């Protein structure tokens, strides 16, 4: 179902604030994790002001260590709903288990499935049944063929609203957190009608490198970006090193608008 041979026309996902696919580009931005109402509202307001069309923020965080901040859970979802109310931005947030899909879908406009769950087939099926669009990250060791098969689990439930996100893969290189596979953009777009986005934040792992990767992804033809930004990144409870501060976010957005005047 993901194949261009089956559906030759690009899939376009439309939101009140913008669209992605078929030449339309969206930017989703916000903190890695929802930490407080103030932090989330502050980020939501400035990302909107500088032209983002969607708010990101994790309420359930899939952390490598069980002792790290795990997210605010349902309280975090409430905060995201308040930020949507205040700004009009639709919200994308991660769901980490099939049992929580109904809860997260009650608050979120888009369900995020993270790299670590990209082959959690029960989760993919539950997200497919949720009725919500799904933003699916590529697993850090997944081939593009495997990635498309994961998307297929969602599509097979009758949910055609899937966004594919390249967020960096594991290579021998350790300078960056992951290696952004920019070639995933043209390759995926030669195979599928689904929108293809770039997550420059998790690939770079360091805020100073995020803008270059974002621009590279868009120049390669990506249909959108999901980017982390935090009002006080050095105080962030997750991914502190890679979140843009407001000034860096503003600069990135102005460079994106120079590249894509239509955005
Ligand atoms: C995130 O978006 O904060 C996240 C955990 O991303 P990934 O699943 O790509 O690591
Ligand atoms: Mn993160």
From TrEMBL:
Record carries keyword Disulfide bond: no
Superkingdom, natural source: Bacteria
Domain DAHP synthetase I/KDSA: from-to ranges: 19-252
Alphabetized GO MF terms: 3-deoxy-7-phosphoheptulonate synthase activity; aldehyde-lyase activity
EC code(s) of this entry: 2.5.1.54
Entry keyword Transferase: yes
Principal EC category: transferase
Keywords: Transferase
Listed GO biological process terms: aromatic amino acid family biosynthetic process
Protein name: Phospho-2-dehydro-3-deoxyheptonate aldolase
């Amino acid at each position: 179902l993901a194949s261009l041979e089956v559906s030759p026309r690009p899939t376009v996902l439309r939101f009140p604030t913008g669209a992605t696919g078929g030449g339309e580009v969206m930017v989703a931005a916000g903190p890695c994790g929802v930490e407080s109402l103030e932090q989330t509202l502050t980020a939501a307001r400035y990302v909107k002001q500088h032209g983002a069309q969607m708010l990101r923020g994790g309420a359930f965080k899939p952390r490598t260590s069980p002792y790290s901040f795990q997210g605010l859970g349902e309280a975090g979802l409430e905060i995201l709903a308040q930020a949507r109310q205040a700004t009009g931005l639709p919200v994308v947030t991660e769901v980490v288990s099939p049992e929580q899909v109904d809860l997260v879908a009650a608050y979120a406009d888009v369900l995020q499935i993270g790299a670590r769950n990209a082959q959690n087939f029960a989760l993919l099926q539950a997200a497919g049944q949720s009725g919500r669009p799904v933003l699916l990250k590529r697993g850090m060791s997944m081939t593009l063929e495997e990635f498309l098969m994961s998307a297929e689990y969602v599509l097979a439930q009758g949910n055609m609203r899937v966004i594919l996100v390249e967020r960096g893969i594991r290579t021998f290189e350790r300078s960056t957190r992951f290696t952004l596979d920019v070639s995933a953009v043209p390759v995926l777009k030669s195979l599928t009608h689904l929108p293809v986005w770039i997550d420059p934040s998790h690939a770079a792992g360091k805020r100073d490198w995020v803008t270059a990767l974002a621009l590279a992804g868009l120049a390669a033809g990506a249909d959108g970006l999901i980017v982390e930004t935090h009002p006080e990144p050095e105080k962030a409870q997750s991914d502190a090193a890679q979140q843009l501060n407001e000034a860096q976010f503003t600069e990135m957005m102005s460079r994106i608008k120079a590249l894509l005047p239509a955005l």
